[in-house]
Amino acid sequence: MIQLSYLDYSAVERKSFLHRFSPRAKLAGMGLVLLGIVTLRSVPALFALYVILLLLFFLSRVPMKIFPLTFYPLIFAVLFIFISRFQIHFILLVFLKVLCGSTGVVLLLATTPYPSIFSILGRFLPSLFVVALFLTYRSIFILLNVLEETQHALYFRGGIQWRHPWRSLINISNAFGHLIIKGIDASEKMYESMVLRGFENKIHYRGD
Amino acid sequence: MSHIHLPDGVLPVWLWVAGFIGAILAGVILSKFYKREDLSKRLPLLGMMAAAMVLGASVEIVPIAYHVNLTVISGILLGPSLIFLATLVVNVILALFGHGGITVIGLNTLTLSLEGVLGYFVFHLFWRIFKKLSIAIFLATFLALFASTLSMIGVVSLGTSHYEELIHQGEGRGVFEFKLLKEKEDHQKREGAEEEVNLKRFITILLPLSFLGWLLEGVITLFIVRYIHRLRPDLLRLGGKPS
Predict the structure, then answer these.
(1) CB proximity A56 to B under 8 Å
(2) What is the pLDDT of residues B19-69, one digit of tens each?
(3) Is residue A175 less than 8 Å (CB to CB) from chain B?
(4) Could you give the CA distance from residue B25 to residue B22 in angstroms, rounded to a whole number?
(5) In chain A, which ranges are continuous DSSP H helix?
(6) Do B169 and A89 touch (CB under 8 A)?
(7) Helix intervals (H) in A60-87
């Protein structure tokens, strides 16, 4: 999740042909990828889709640092191979579907700034939901900042030591508690300043 | 582990469509309980708790394939109606990072909000009975995670016939024929289709790992709530003094 800020940086600062595409076209493209994932049931076809997504990933010059993010969902997909009798076809099918989905969404987020995505979603989803989505996304960055400070505090209190698991568990939990309280304070301040600037439970985007 | 980590295209269409319909219905019903003014004031808290859930979900405890959900603590802080909106937001953001499919957002929202709502009510029930914060929070977390994991297993088991269909895809259907291990598959097919999908094995592996996760999350939630109670007891909205 630390890579999230980097993902955001890549979406705003990088300039490639995919970055210049309209967010609407990219969302439509993601919809097509999704349709492919849902309907394709052949391993070579899914593999071809994955290769196309990989090509787009490298052609759009998205930083390589972000690439491992696309493999993260595989950790959980491993559990679902136990449903089948370890059949290669099923395992490949599930893994390719996971990789296509994660590569597609990471590519979308790495080339499209999130306000652009939220503004499109805001056209057909309830404004309350889009506001909640926006506040959550903003809060993730606030929490990441608080997390950096908390890591230092955690280090001074002994940090995480495998020899003292109970102490470590208390430290981790206190860090989470601290993170939540500090985060709530920070988000309340952010919300108050939004209200001062005229926010009334709806986010307006440029061009609205 | 109550979050369904299935990619898109593995669950049958009727199941994930039903998940979206169920989530929309639940959202419409729960939105009747929102008080407009109260909602505006609690939006920052909702955003922050949803962000904490997203961060919790990104910290993977690899040996047991588990991540903390923080849904119960969020349910307690937000209340049963707002936790639904929070879990919906969390699932959309997680799906945008490839953590669970986009088509399973509806089912995941129902499962996770069940955890949050159940956690809220069980916590308040045990709080009234025991008047001890530690016992109430640990039991609420443990039971809520247990219930939501069972509901997740239920959802996964509903797609059994579809998994069988996917397993047999290599037998001449699809864009290109995929013949790897075809002979073996033919042999297995003769043995009986129901043996192909082994839910028992899946549950046998999942439940012990989940049990460790429930214990771990129960303890972590306990300490977090105790920490919050020391510094901001107003957030927990509890009556009486805990021990």
Answers:
(1) no
(2) 999 999 998 888 787 766 677 778 888 988 898 888 887 766 655 566 778
(3) no
(4) 5
(5) 3-13, 17-20, 23-39, 43-59, 74-80, 88-111, 114-124, 127-156, 165-196
(6) yes
(7) 74-80
Task: State pLDDT tens for residues B77-122.
Answer: 888 888 999 999 998 888 877 677 788 899 989 999 999 999 999 9
Among positive and negative, which fits the CA dihedral A128, A134, A137, A139?
A: negative
**Cα of B7 to nearest chain A Cα, Å:** 5
Task: Read off the pTM.
Answer: 0.81
- The DSSP result for B35-63, as a single string, is -HHHHHHHHHHHHHHHHHHHHHHHSEEGG
The beta-carbon neighbor of B47 closest among A80, A139, A170 is A139
Q: Taking CB atoms and an 8 Å limit, are A173 and B220 in contact across chains?
A: yes
Interface test with B, best of A26, A40, A76, A170 (most B CBs within 10 A): A76
- pLDDT score at B168: 67
Probe site for chain A from B11, B31, B97 (most A CB atoms < 10 A)? B97
Name the stretches of chain A with pLDDT < 70.
1-3, 76, 79-80, 82-86, 159-160, 205-208
For the stretch B197-238, pLDDT in tens is: 667 777 887 788 888 888 888 888 898 898 888 888 888 877
User: From the CB of residue B172, how many other CB atoms can be counted at a distance below 10 Å?
Assistant: 10
Tally A–B CB contacts below 8 A: 251
Is CATH 1.10.1760.20 the right assignment for the domain spanning B13-159+187-236?
A: yes
Q: Domain map of chain B by residue range?
A: 13-159+187-236
- Closest partner residue to B7 (CB to CB) among A40, A94, A144 is A94
Nearest to A180 among B5, B52, B85 (CB): B52
